[in-house]
Amino acid sequence: MLFITERDVDMHLPMKDAISALEEAFQDYADGMSSYSSRGRLKLSKGALVTMPGYLHKYNLAGLKTYVGSQKKHRHVLIFNSKSGEPIALIESSRMGQIKTGALPAMVTKRLVHGGSHSLCIIGSGLQARGQLEGMLAAFPLDSANVYSRTPANAMKFAVEMSSKFGIDIKVHDTASSALKGCTIISSATSSVEPIFSGRDLGETYHANLIGANVPSRREAASDVLDQSGLVVVEDMAQALEESTEIMEMNDRSKCIELRDLFKFTSPVKEQKTIFKSMGVGLEDIAMSYALLRNMKIL
Fold it and tell me: Is the whole model's pTM more than 0.90, yes or no?
Protein backbone atom coordinates (compact mmCIF):
# COMPACT_ATOMS: atom_id res chain seq x y z
CA MET A 1 0.00 0.00 0.00
CA LEU A 2 1.31 3.42 -0.98
CA PHE A 3 1.49 6.46 1.28
CA ILE A 4 0.70 9.63 -0.64
CA THR A 5 1.70 12.97 0.85
CA GLU A 6 0.24 16.46 0.70
CA ARG A 7 3.07 17.40 -1.69
CA ASP A 8 2.07 14.57 -4.02
CA VAL A 9 -1.51 15.80 -4.00
CA ASP A 10 -0.48 19.38 -4.74
CA MET A 11 1.67 18.23 -7.67
CA HIS A 12 -0.76 15.78 -9.27
CA LEU A 13 -4.32 17.04 -8.68
CA PRO A 14 -5.08 20.18 -10.71
CA MET A 15 -8.41 21.85 -10.07
CA LYS A 16 -9.84 21.18 -13.54
CA ASP A 17 -9.20 17.45 -13.15
CA ALA A 18 -10.90 17.56 -9.76
CA ILE A 19 -13.99 19.22 -11.25
CA SER A 20 -14.16 16.63 -14.04
CA ALA A 21 -13.78 13.74 -11.58
CA LEU A 22 -16.66 15.04 -9.47
CA GLU A 23 -18.87 15.44 -12.54
CA GLU A 24 -18.19 11.85 -13.54
CA ALA A 25 -18.75 10.51 -10.01
CA PHE A 26 -22.10 12.22 -9.52
CA GLN A 27 -23.28 11.24 -12.99
CA ASP A 28 -22.48 7.64 -12.07
CA TYR A 29 -24.26 8.09 -8.75
CA ALA A 30 -27.32 9.49 -10.57
CA ASP A 31 -27.22 6.39 -12.81
CA GLY A 32 -27.13 4.09 -9.78
CA MET A 33 -23.55 2.94 -10.39
CA SER A 34 -21.76 4.49 -7.41
CA SER A 35 -22.69 5.05 -3.77
CA TYR A 36 -21.75 6.45 -0.38
CA SER A 37 -22.90 6.39 3.22
CA SER A 38 -23.60 9.49 5.30
CA ARG A 39 -20.92 10.82 7.59
CA GLY A 40 -20.52 8.73 10.72
CA ARG A 41 -19.45 10.23 14.04
CA LEU A 42 -18.29 7.86 16.77
CA LYS A 43 -18.12 9.71 20.08
CA LEU A 44 -14.80 9.52 21.89
CA SER A 45 -13.85 10.67 25.38
CA LYS A 46 -12.88 13.91 23.65
CA GLY A 47 -14.28 14.67 20.21
CA ALA A 48 -15.35 12.08 17.66
CA LEU A 49 -13.97 9.71 15.06
CA VAL A 50 -15.47 10.74 11.71
CA THR A 51 -15.81 8.35 8.76
CA MET A 52 -17.08 9.16 5.25
CA PRO A 53 -17.27 6.06 2.97
CA GLY A 54 -17.73 6.03 -0.80
CA TYR A 55 -17.62 3.67 -3.78
CA LEU A 56 -16.83 4.28 -7.47
CA HIS A 57 -18.14 1.24 -9.34
CA LYS A 58 -16.64 2.17 -12.71
CA TYR A 59 -13.08 2.15 -11.38
CA ASN A 60 -13.46 -0.55 -8.71
CA LEU A 61 -12.49 1.88 -5.97
CA ALA A 62 -13.93 1.92 -2.46
CA GLY A 63 -12.70 3.66 0.64
CA LEU A 64 -13.29 6.33 3.19
CA LYS A 65 -12.08 9.64 4.49
CA THR A 66 -11.45 9.59 8.23
CA TYR A 67 -10.24 11.90 10.97
CA VAL A 68 -10.61 12.62 14.68
CA GLY A 69 -12.16 15.91 15.73
CA SER A 70 -11.53 18.96 13.58
CA GLN A 71 -7.78 18.58 13.04
CA LYS A 72 -7.44 19.30 9.33
CA LYS A 73 -3.77 18.31 9.22
CA HIS A 74 -4.53 14.76 10.34
CA ARG A 75 -7.16 13.83 7.75
CA HIS A 76 -6.60 10.82 5.49
CA VAL A 77 -8.36 8.90 2.73
CA LEU A 78 -7.93 5.12 2.59
CA ILE A 79 -8.50 3.55 -0.86
CA PHE A 80 -9.12 -0.12 -1.69
CA ASN A 81 -9.51 -2.11 -4.90
CA SER A 82 -13.15 -3.13 -4.49
CA LYS A 83 -12.71 -6.33 -6.52
CA SER A 84 -9.63 -7.77 -4.85
CA GLY A 85 -10.01 -6.08 -1.47
CA GLU A 86 -6.38 -4.98 -1.70
CA PRO A 87 -5.54 -1.62 -0.08
CA ILE A 88 -4.09 0.73 -2.70
CA ALA A 89 -3.16 3.92 -0.89
CA LEU A 90 -3.39 6.01 2.25
CA ILE A 91 -3.59 9.66 1.20
CA GLU A 92 -2.93 12.76 3.31
CA SER A 93 -6.00 14.81 2.53
CA SER A 94 -5.75 18.36 3.84
CA ARG A 95 -4.80 19.76 0.41
CA MET A 96 -7.07 17.26 -1.34
CA GLY A 97 -9.94 18.41 0.86
CA GLN A 98 -9.23 22.03 -0.05
CA ILE A 99 -9.22 21.16 -3.76
CA LYS A 100 -12.41 19.10 -3.43
CA THR A 101 -14.18 21.83 -1.49
CA GLY A 102 -13.30 24.30 -4.23
CA ALA A 103 -14.07 21.97 -7.14
CA LEU A 104 -17.49 20.86 -5.92
CA PRO A 105 -19.18 24.30 -5.81
CA ALA A 106 -17.51 25.16 -9.12
CA MET A 107 -18.97 22.02 -10.68
CA VAL A 108 -22.45 22.74 -9.30
CA THR A 109 -22.28 26.43 -10.24
CA LYS A 110 -21.45 25.52 -13.86
CA ARG A 111 -24.72 23.57 -14.00
CA LEU A 112 -26.85 26.35 -12.52
CA VAL A 113 -25.33 29.55 -13.91
CA HIS A 114 -25.49 30.23 -17.63
CA GLY A 115 -24.52 32.87 -20.18
CA GLY A 116 -23.16 36.37 -19.88
CA SER A 117 -20.46 37.68 -17.60
CA HIS A 118 -20.45 36.96 -13.89
CA SER A 119 -19.03 38.58 -10.79
CA LEU A 120 -17.75 36.62 -7.79
CA CYS A 121 -17.96 37.29 -4.07
CA ILE A 122 -15.96 35.20 -1.60
CA ILE A 123 -17.09 35.34 2.02
CA GLY A 124 -14.33 34.14 4.31
CA SER A 125 -10.56 34.27 3.83
CA GLY A 126 -9.19 31.03 5.26
CA LEU A 127 -7.96 27.78 3.74
CA GLN A 128 -11.30 26.81 2.19
CA ALA A 129 -11.93 30.31 0.83
CA ARG A 130 -8.72 29.96 -1.16
CA GLY A 131 -10.05 26.72 -2.63
CA GLN A 132 -13.33 28.44 -3.51
CA LEU A 133 -11.54 31.10 -5.51
CA GLU A 134 -9.30 28.54 -7.22
CA GLY A 135 -12.31 26.43 -8.20
CA MET A 136 -14.33 29.31 -9.62
CA LEU A 137 -11.37 30.57 -11.64
CA ALA A 138 -11.03 27.10 -13.16
CA ALA A 139 -14.71 27.11 -14.15
CA PHE A 140 -15.41 30.73 -15.18
CA PRO A 141 -13.48 33.48 -17.02
CA LEU A 142 -13.24 35.92 -14.10
CA ASP A 143 -10.83 38.83 -13.92
CA SER A 144 -11.87 40.18 -10.51
CA ALA A 145 -13.54 39.19 -7.26
CA ASN A 146 -14.80 40.72 -4.03
CA VAL A 147 -13.89 39.36 -0.61
CA TYR A 148 -15.30 39.93 2.86
CA SER A 149 -14.02 38.47 6.12
CA ARG A 150 -15.03 39.08 9.71
CA THR A 151 -11.29 39.62 10.28
CA PRO A 152 -10.26 42.50 7.98
CA ALA A 153 -6.53 41.76 8.24
CA ASN A 154 -7.14 38.23 6.99
CA ALA A 155 -9.17 39.54 4.06
CA MET A 156 -6.35 41.88 3.09
CA LYS A 157 -3.80 39.07 3.29
CA PHE A 158 -6.08 36.87 1.18
CA ALA A 159 -6.45 39.60 -1.45
CA VAL A 160 -2.71 40.24 -1.70
CA GLU A 161 -1.75 36.56 -1.89
CA MET A 162 -4.51 35.46 -4.27
CA SER A 163 -4.13 38.49 -6.57
CA SER A 164 -0.46 37.66 -6.93
CA LYS A 165 -1.06 33.93 -7.42
CA PHE A 166 -3.89 34.17 -9.97
CA GLY A 167 -3.33 37.58 -11.55
CA ILE A 168 -6.79 38.97 -10.82
CA ASP A 169 -8.04 42.05 -9.04
CA ILE A 170 -9.47 41.22 -5.60
CA LYS A 171 -11.31 44.00 -3.77
CA VAL A 172 -11.60 43.87 0.02
CA HIS A 173 -14.90 45.07 1.51
CA ASP A 174 -15.73 46.17 5.04
CA THR A 175 -19.16 44.54 5.08
CA ALA A 176 -20.75 41.46 3.55
CA SER A 177 -23.50 43.64 2.09
CA SER A 178 -20.95 45.77 0.22
CA ALA A 179 -19.02 42.74 -1.03
CA LEU A 180 -22.18 41.06 -2.31
CA LYS A 181 -23.49 44.07 -4.21
CA GLY A 182 -23.84 43.23 -7.90
CA CYS A 183 -22.35 39.73 -7.55
CA THR A 184 -24.02 36.82 -9.33
CA ILE A 185 -21.83 34.04 -7.89
CA ILE A 186 -21.23 33.77 -4.15
CA SER A 187 -19.16 31.28 -2.19
CA SER A 188 -19.28 31.41 1.60
CA ALA A 189 -16.65 29.43 3.49
CA THR A 190 -16.67 30.37 7.17
CA SER A 191 -17.17 28.82 10.61
CA SER A 192 -19.76 31.40 11.59
CA VAL A 193 -22.47 30.55 14.11
CA GLU A 194 -24.55 33.58 13.10
CA PRO A 195 -25.81 34.45 9.59
CA ILE A 196 -23.34 36.62 7.72
CA PHE A 197 -25.75 37.80 5.02
CA SER A 198 -29.48 37.94 4.39
CA GLY A 199 -31.83 38.08 1.43
CA ARG A 200 -31.77 41.86 1.25
CA ASP A 201 -28.03 41.72 0.47
CA LEU A 202 -28.61 39.76 -2.75
CA GLY A 203 -29.70 40.88 -6.20
CA GLU A 204 -32.36 39.56 -8.56
CA THR A 205 -30.02 36.92 -10.00
CA TYR A 206 -27.54 34.89 -8.00
CA HIS A 207 -26.16 31.47 -7.18
CA ALA A 208 -24.79 31.06 -3.65
CA ASN A 209 -22.63 28.19 -2.39
CA LEU A 210 -22.77 27.64 1.37
CA ILE A 211 -19.92 25.30 2.28
CA GLY A 212 -18.67 26.36 5.69
CA ALA A 213 -21.05 24.62 8.10
CA ASN A 214 -21.76 20.92 8.58
CA VAL A 215 -22.88 20.99 12.20
CA PRO A 216 -26.19 22.49 13.43
CA SER A 217 -24.42 25.04 15.63
CA ARG A 218 -23.15 26.93 12.56
CA ARG A 219 -24.85 28.87 9.82
CA GLU A 220 -23.78 31.37 7.17
CA ALA A 221 -27.00 32.58 5.51
CA ALA A 222 -30.18 33.93 7.10
CA SER A 223 -33.40 31.95 6.66
CA ASP A 224 -34.79 34.40 4.09
CA VAL A 225 -31.90 33.63 1.70
CA LEU A 226 -33.08 30.05 1.27
CA ASP A 227 -36.77 30.95 1.47
CA GLN A 228 -36.54 33.47 -1.40
CA SER A 229 -34.47 31.17 -3.63
CA GLY A 230 -36.19 29.11 -6.31
CA LEU A 231 -33.98 26.02 -6.09
CA VAL A 232 -31.83 24.63 -3.27
CA VAL A 233 -29.41 21.78 -3.98
CA VAL A 234 -27.96 19.51 -1.28
CA GLU A 235 -25.78 16.44 -1.63
CA ASP A 236 -27.96 14.28 0.61
CA MET A 237 -31.28 15.40 2.10
CA ALA A 238 -31.20 13.09 5.13
CA GLN A 239 -27.72 14.30 6.01
CA ALA A 240 -28.71 17.93 5.46
CA LEU A 241 -31.58 17.56 7.91
CA GLU A 242 -29.11 16.34 10.53
CA GLU A 243 -26.25 18.75 9.91
CA SER A 244 -27.55 22.01 8.42
CA THR A 245 -29.59 24.53 10.40
CA GLU A 246 -30.17 26.43 7.17
CA ILE A 247 -31.96 23.42 5.66
CA MET A 248 -33.73 22.45 8.89
CA GLU A 249 -35.30 25.90 9.19
CA MET A 250 -36.49 26.25 5.60
CA ASN A 251 -40.20 27.00 5.34
CA ASP A 252 -40.58 25.11 2.04
CA ARG A 253 -38.23 22.18 1.52
CA SER A 254 -40.14 21.03 -1.57
CA LYS A 255 -37.78 23.18 -3.65
CA CYS A 256 -34.78 21.19 -2.38
CA ILE A 257 -33.24 18.58 -4.66
CA GLU A 258 -30.30 16.25 -4.17
CA LEU A 259 -27.20 16.77 -6.26
CA ARG A 260 -27.74 13.52 -8.18
CA ASP A 261 -31.10 14.90 -9.37
CA LEU A 262 -29.31 17.83 -10.99
CA PHE A 263 -27.57 15.31 -13.25
CA LYS A 264 -30.92 13.97 -14.43
CA PHE A 265 -32.14 17.31 -15.84
CA THR A 266 -32.41 17.27 -19.62
CA SER A 267 -32.46 21.05 -20.05
CA PRO A 268 -30.67 23.96 -18.34
CA VAL A 269 -32.00 25.16 -15.00
CA LYS A 270 -33.92 28.41 -15.49
CA GLU A 271 -34.20 29.52 -11.86
CA GLN A 272 -32.45 32.85 -11.30
CA LYS A 273 -31.97 32.45 -7.54
CA THR A 274 -30.26 29.21 -6.57
CA ILE A 275 -28.39 27.79 -3.59
CA PHE A 276 -25.98 24.90 -3.12
CA LYS A 277 -25.68 23.83 0.52
CA SER A 278 -22.77 21.41 0.86
CA MET A 279 -21.93 19.23 3.85
CA GLY A 280 -19.56 16.82 2.11
CA VAL A 281 -19.99 13.12 1.32
CA GLY A 282 -17.44 10.34 0.94
CA LEU A 283 -18.05 9.84 -2.78
CA GLU A 284 -16.35 13.17 -3.38
CA ASP A 285 -13.15 12.06 -1.65
CA ILE A 286 -13.08 8.79 -3.61
CA ALA A 287 -13.50 10.76 -6.85
CA MET A 288 -10.58 13.01 -5.87
CA SER A 289 -8.51 9.95 -5.05
CA TYR A 290 -9.27 8.41 -8.44
CA ALA A 291 -8.13 11.54 -10.31
CA LEU A 292 -5.00 11.76 -8.18
CA LEU A 293 -4.04 8.08 -8.56
CA ARG A 294 -4.71 8.22 -12.31
CA ASN A 295 -2.51 11.30 -12.72
CA MET A 296 0.23 9.62 -10.67
CA LYS A 297 -0.08 6.60 -13.03
CA ILE A 298 -0.90 4.30 -10.11
CA LEU A 299 -4.19 3.28 -11.73
Answer: yes
